[in-house]
Design brief:
140 residues; mainly alpha; 2 strands; 60% helix; 6% strand; globular
Length: 140
């Protein structure tokens, strides 16, 4: 990995798709574009090229998460998005990427997948509204 490139160039859904399409072009000279959700489906169904593209992307996600660890020192990092559907395939590579990018003797932070579905930000905002709406009035 080049140290001067943008994290998104290595860890985004678009980069995972590009890796997959490139591997197909090597095989048969042409490839149709697919969505990241389709790539995840292929990986879960056992497509080795899709798995490889997903696992390489997971590694770089881990590298980026390590930078967040070192900059913000969270107790836990929660991963959201489509990749969570393939967490069983991605977790080892996410952890390997994070461990490779941490400074020496820096403690590893817990990385977990979100359980809030496809819209975790919306769910969080909704819970804040409900909390405010249904909070009991203080008694003086």
């Amino acid at each position: 990995m080049r140290k001067y490139n943008c994290w998104e160039a290595f860890a985004s859904e678009r980069s995972a798709i590009a890796r997959y399409v490139k591997s197909l072009k090597k095989q048969n000279g042409a490839a149709d574009a697919i969505s990241f959700a389709e790539l995840v489906n292929l990986a879960l169904e056992g497509d080795e090229k899709a798995r490889t593209a997903l696992k390489q992307t997971a590694y770089y996600i881990g590298v980026g998460i390590a930078n967040v660890f070192q900059g913000l020192s969270p107790e836990v990092t929660i991963v959201t998005g489509t990749i969570v559907r393939a967490w069983s395939l991605a977790i080892e590579d996410v952890m390997a990427g994070a461990e490779s990018a941490l400074c020496q003797d820096y403690p590893m932070v817990k990385i977990i997948p979100s359980t809030l579905g496809n819209y975790p930000t919306l769910m969080g905002a909704f819970s804040l509204i409900l909390t405010d709406k249904f909070a009991s009035a203080s008694i003086i």
